[in-house]
Structures are given as structure tokens and as C-alpha cells.
């Protein structure tokens, strides 16, 4: 086991006009909504909301410790801090929540956005110190808990990651998904037109055309799977006609990852029951998101994970 080096610490505090009082622990007063009510003045000391940042440059680890509660006012401050730490390109970014007393929806969105940004930065975001029931329950109900490596405490995380600095929990990169059409080329031959996938509502720019050699005087051929396979693409058939034109015929979705196509077929019934397109749900599942979490984000207007 590698000894963890001494950290370089930096403290970050919220603006001066931010109220520093935090809710007290449950049981000290009647709860209002999801927050426990504050106890009478003078019954216990106030807990300020603070961030402390610890750097372990020898092993590429950065730890951010949160004190207080994470809600609509404090989540943007934490997200700004985490973004700043990712600019230094650490291998691992640890978020210590042991001193967090409340985790709201804004805080959950902050965690998800930071995870996506960390993935883009080729870093790993880990959670440590999930000991408070309110925090753990929020992560479990939202479905976010399964997306992170978790540790009992910050020191556990630092020691483990110092021994495995290059470990990756989600190395997968979502393969490109293309919408396939039969399209006549200048009234000459049929071609398979491949467009960028932009959700079920439409498609993006044309990225490729595959010539079938079949003249347009004949009906659109049924050789699309073979043509796509020759270009190392797999087809998920979808005869839905959402793009009405006089000549364009939608075939389905093409992808260079056969596993994603097989997954789409596997979850077809589940996706249909949820009112979603199978390839959309399959893309979220392939990126590591649980089905229920994926359904929530798709219905919120996110066709693909980022």
C-alpha cells in the first residue's frame, strides 16, 4: 500500500452576504418539508457552509470537503469549485460529504453535471463519507448512487486511489448513433443516407451516403443491413415515418457497436412500455445509467447522455 502524501489545503468560502446558519440535526425541532427545523437561538452553535480543498499532486488526487447543506443557493458554489479543480486535470476528484446535513435536488443536479464534466476531462468523480441518512436517501431515490465509486471516508478513498491512481470505473465511450434513410441520388440510384442522431424529434447533418447500385426506377431495396455491415455498422430497424418527404424512407438506426444494437432489441418492450424509443434508452444504459434514472432524464429533454 502506498502512503498517501501530505495534502495541500485551500479553503473556499461563500460570499459574505450568504446566510451561514445551517439546519440542525433531525430531532432538535419539528421538520418542515425535507428540512429539520432550527432549534431555539442559543441552544447549539451555528454550522457555517464551507468548502475545503485538499490536493495530493503526487498521485493526481484532489479532494473537496463540503460542510453544511447543499441546496439551491450553495449548489452553484460547489459546482464552480469542482469545475475549477477539474481544470488542473486530476486523475481523481473526491467529494467528501461526511459533514453534509442536507442534499436537495439542486445538489443532485450539481453531482450529475460534475460527473459528466469529469468524464469529459478524463477524470473520476468519487463520493466519500455517505453516513447521514438524508444524504444517502436522496442519492438512492434519485438513482445517482450507482453512478459513483463510494468510500466510507475521505482517508479510505485517498489511500485506495493512491494505490490505483489510474483506475477507471466508467471507461466506456458512447459510440455514435446515426439515423439511416433510403434516399434517391439525383434520380439515379438508391443510397443509404446516414444522419447524426438528435433524439426522436429529428436528425442532424448528413455524415455519409452508401451507394446501393440499385436504380431508382425500382423500389427501395431491402439490402440496407448488408450495405451497412460492409461499412462495419449495425442496424436497428425502425420503419417509423417521422420525416415526410416524397422520396426519403427511414430505415432505422445504425451504430458501430453491435452490443448497443443488441441491447436496444433486449429492452424494446421495456422502452415501449415507458413510451420511449429503444435506441434512446439503450444509449443511456450503455453509458452506465440505470433504466429508471435514464427514463427521468430522457423525459426531461435529454435524448442522449453527455
Describe this structure in words.
The chain is an alpha+beta fold and 306 residues long. The chain folds into two domains: 8-163, Transcription Regulator spoIIAA (2-Layer Sandwich); 174-306, no CATH class. The chain has helices spanning 75-86, 105-120, 133-142, 154-163, 224-230, 258-266, 268-274, 278-286, 291-299, and strands at residues 8-12, 31-32, 35-36, 50-56, 61-70, 92-103, 124-128, 149-151, 178-185, 189-197, 203-215, 234-237, 249-255. A six-stranded mixed beta sheet has the order 1-4-5-6-7-8, with helices on both faces. A hairpin with a 2-residue loop joins strand 2 (31-32) and strand 3 (35-36). Helix 1 (75-86) packs parallel to helix 2 and helix 6 (258-266) crosses helix 8. The protein is elongated and about 75 Å long. The model is unreliable at 8-46 and 167-172 (pLDDT under 50).
Main beta sheet, described?
Answer: 6 strands, mixed
* Silhouette: elongated
Helix content estimate: 25-40%
Q: How big is the Rg?
A: 25 Å
User: Which CATH class of the largest domain applies here?
Assistant: Alpha Beta
CATH architecture of the largest domain: 2-Layer Sandwich
How many helices? The count is: 9
Strand pairing plus helix content: what structural class?
alpha+beta
Q: Give me the CATH superfamily of the largest domain.
A: STAS domain
State the oligomer. single chain
| Count of all domains | 2
Number of strands: 13
Task: Write down the CATH topology of the largest domain.
Answer: Transcription Regulator spoIIAA
Q: What do the pLDDT scores average to?
A: 75
Strand content: 25-35%
Amino acid at each position: 500500500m502506498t502512503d498517501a502524501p501530505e495534502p495541500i489545503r485551500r479553503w473556499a468560502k461563500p460570499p459574505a452576504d450568504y446566510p451561514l446558519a445551517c439546519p440542525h440535526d433531525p430531532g432538535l425541532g419539528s421538520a418542515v418539508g425535507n428540512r429539520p427545523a432550527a432549534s431555539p437561538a442559543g441552544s447549539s452553535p451555528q454550522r457555517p457552509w464551507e468548502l475545503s480543498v485538499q490536493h495530493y499532486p503526487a498521485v493526481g488526487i484532489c479532494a473537496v470537503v463540503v460542510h453544511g447543506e447543499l441546496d439551491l443557493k450553495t449548489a452553484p458554489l460547489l459546482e464552480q469549485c469542482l469545475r475549477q479543480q477539474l481544470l488542473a486535470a486530476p486523475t481523481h476528484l473526491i467529494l467528501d460529504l461526511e459533514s453534509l446535513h442536507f442534499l436537495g435536488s439542486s445538489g443532485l443536479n450539481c453531482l450529475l453535471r460534475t460527473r459528466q464534466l469529469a468524464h469529459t476531462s478524463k477524470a473520476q468523480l468519487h463520493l466519500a463519507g455517505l453516513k447521514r441518512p438524508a444524504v444517502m436517501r436522496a442519492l438512492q431515490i434519485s438513482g445517482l448512487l450507482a453512478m459513483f465509486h463510494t468510500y466510507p471516508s475521505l482517508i479510505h478513498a485517498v489511500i485506495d486511489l493512491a494505490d490505483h491512481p489510474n483506475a477507471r470505473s466508467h471507461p466506456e465511450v458512447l459510440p455514435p448513433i446515426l439515423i439511416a434513410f433510403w434516399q434517391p441520388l439525383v434520380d439515379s440510384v438508391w443510397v443509404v443516407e446516414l444522419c447524426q442522431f438528435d433524439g426522436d424529434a429529428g436528425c442532424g447533418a448528413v455524415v455519409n451516403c452508401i451507394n446501393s447500385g440499385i436504380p431508382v426506377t425500382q423500389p427501395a431495396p431491402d439490402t440496407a443491413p448488408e450495405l451497412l455491415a460492409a461499412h462495419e455498422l449495425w442496424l436497428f430497424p425502425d420503419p417509423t415515418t417521422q420525416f415526410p418527404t416524397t422520396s426519403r424512407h427511414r430505415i432505422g438506426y445504425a451504430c458501430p457497436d453491435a452490443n448497443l444494437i443488441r441491447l436496444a432489441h433486449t429492452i424494446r418492450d421495456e422502452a415501449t412500455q415507458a413510451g420511449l424509443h429503444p435506441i434512446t434508452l439503450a444509449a443511456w444504459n450503455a453509458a452506465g445509467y440505470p433504466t429508471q434514472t435514464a427514463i427521468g432524464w430522457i423525459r426531461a429533454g435529454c435524448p442522449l447522455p453527455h
